[in-house]
Amino acid sequence: MGLAISVGVLVDLLQNDPEGAEWLQQGLTVANEVLAAADLPPHHEPRELPPMHSRASIGGFPYSFIHYLRRAYAIRAAEPGWVATPVEDDVDPSQDPAVDDALSDMQSHLVCHSDAEGYYVPVDFDEVLYAEPGQELPGGILGSSYRLRDELVLVAPALGIELADGELSDEEAARIARLIDADGGLYREYVSWLRLYESARLSIAHKTAIVFN
Question: Which DSSP category does 159 fall into?
C-alpha cells in the first residue's frame, strides 16, 4: 500500500466507478463548505477534461516518501541557502525539528496535510484550511494547489532542481526521472516532488482537484 496522487479523478470515476464518483463528490461538497466558511469561492470539479499529460511516470509511492520532501521544504523555508543531502537510513524525516516547527506554525500547505487522503483545490488562498468538528472532510485539512506549487518551487533549489520562473522544462523533468530511476541519493524527494509539482501544474491549468488516496 502507498500514497496515490491524482488529478481529474471525477472524470474517470464517472465512467468507471459511479459509487466512487458519488463518494468523491460528497467529499468535495464538504471541501466547498470549508471554503465557504473562509469566505472563499467554491471549487467546481470538471466532469469533462481534455487529455492531460504528466511528466511524472510514477503515480504513487510509499507513504514515507512525502515526509522526506516535507523535511526538505521545512528546512529550506527556515534556512535559505540550505542544500539537501540524503537522510540517513536510521533517521525518521518526519521527526525533524524543522518539520515540528512547520506543523506548529500551521502555514505550509505541503507539510500541514494528510499523507494518506484529502484534497488540494485550485483556489488561491494563503492559510491552510481545517474542517470543523463533524465535517467529514477526507484528511481533515484542505490545501491550495497554488500554494502547494509555490512551496515546491521554493524547495526546488535545495534539491538541485532548476526551474525557469517557477516552470519545469521537459529536459529538467527528464533529468529528474533519470535520477529517480537511479534509485539513490535524494530519489525519495525527487519522486514526491515531481509527482506533486506535475499534479499542481495540471490542477491549476485544468481547474481540477488534487486527490490523495
Answer: G
| Residue 90 near residue 45 (C-beta atoms within 8 A) | no
This prediction has a pTM of: 0.96
Cell digits for 89?
537510513
DSSP assignment of 40-69 equals: -PPP---S-------S----EE-TTHHHHH
Segment 141-188, tens digit of pLDDT? 999 999 999 999 999 999 999 999 999 999 999 999 999 999 889 999
pLDDT at 1: 59
Asked if residue 141 lies in contact with residue 131, where contact means CB atoms within 8 angstroms, the answer is yes
Count how many domains the chain has.
Answer: 1
Domain encompassing residue 108? 3-212
C-alpha 126/C-alpha 36 separation (Å) is 15
